[in-house]
Amino acid sequence: METRYPIRAVSKLTGLSLDTLRAWERRYGAVVPERSDRGRQYSPADVERLRLLSQLVRTGHAIGTVAPLSNEQLGSLLGQAPQPALASELRAGFLEPFLSAIEKFDARRAGDELSRLAAVLSPRDFIYEVGVPLMREVGIRWHEGTLGIAQEHLVSSLLRNLLGSMMRLFRPASPSVKIVFAALAGEPHEFGILASAVLASLAGIEPVYLGSDLPALEIANAAAQVSARAIALGITLATETSLADVGAIVAAMPETAELWVGGAGSAGLDVSRLDRKVILINDLPAFEEECRRCQGIP
Predict the structure, then answer these.
(1) Can you tell me the distance from the alpha carbon of 56 to that of 124, in angstroms, rounded to the nearest whole number?
(2) Location of each CATH 1.10.1660.10 domain in the chain
């Protein structure tokens, strides 16, 4: 009789979280495990297929694109270079339909546009090719007066929901490193730390996502409670208050943890006045480099 594996065993064998396994089965039909009174039962062939799919997703392929392929086709793709993002489609006007829906407060249509891109792009490409340019464009239009604060909040809400789902979906099964993600009190913007948390999940790190508008000591205490390897802090505007808050975190956080500070305001922080080294992160690629370093990956 062929060996069958329960879903928790498959999670350990493939490195995929339980939520990811269920979503790939439900949304994309990636595998069709047997069902019994003990729950899902996966065959060795199912496990091998999931391993192939996991490798392809982590090299840049979208699960919605590769899930329908045969194992032979998946194996062939592994020998090819990662697929480029659909930059041509985005340049051809993806943002305009989305922003048109936002102007009319048509949340359903705008959400459908985001979901469509999330289905055909890998999570990493979605962040770089959709999320970052979208927030930049919304900021430009807000300053020009063509979008209001309420519309900017609607965009942020839609992205927050989608990226939050991605973070949970791609949470690693057996992470060896945890990073706390937060923004300081009075800091309402969270796209940067949320996008970074998704990238951390994809890199095999467990994100402990606290969100925005948090007191400094709460952030430091959370890092101590979960034995975090680092705290990733987002700052959009450098002020004396934010520098003081960074200093308070440095003083209270575990000695074994690092403090990473990113966002538009990070370049304006004079961290030389602090007793402890703070790593300033200029952009998301630099953040991914730090993720690899803290895991000992060249």
Answers:
(1) 12
(2) 5-78
What is the dihedral angle through the alpha carbons of 183, 189, 191, 194, rounded to the nearest 10 degrees?
30
Whole-number Å distance between alpha carbons of 47 and 11 = 9
User: Rounded to two decimals, what is the model's pTM?
Assistant: 0.71
Distance (Å, rounded) from C-alpha 284 to C-alpha 290? 10
Mind listing the pLDDT tens digit of every residue in the chain (298 residues)? 566 788 888 887 777 878 888 889 888 899 998 888 778 898 888 888 888 888 888 777 888 888 999 988 888 887 765 555 444 444 445 678 888 899 999 999 999 888 877 877 778 888 988 888 888 888 888 888 889 999 999 999 999 999 998 888 888 888 889 999 999 988 888 899 999 999 999 889 999 999 999 999 999 999 999 999 999 999 988 788 888 899 899 999 998 999 999 988 887 777 777 767 788 898 899 999 999 998 887 6
In CATH terms, is domain 87-168 a member of 3.20.20.10? no
Give how far Cα 235 sits from Cα of 75, 155, 186, 206, 239, Å: 43, 19, 10, 21, 10
How are strands ordered across the β-sheet holding 230-234?
Answer: 206-214, 178-184, 230-234, 258-262, 279-281
| Burial (Cβ within 10 Å: 0-12, 13-18, ≥19) of residue 75 | middle
SS3 224: helix
Give 259's strand partners: 231
* CA angle 53–59–64, rounded 5-degree value: 45
CB neighbour list of residue 22: distance below 8 Å, 6 or more residues apart:
7
What is the CATH topology of the domain spanning 170-294?
A: Rossmann fold (3.40.50)
**Domain topology for 5-78:** Multidrug-efflux Transporter Regulator; Chain: A; Domain 2 (1.10.1660)
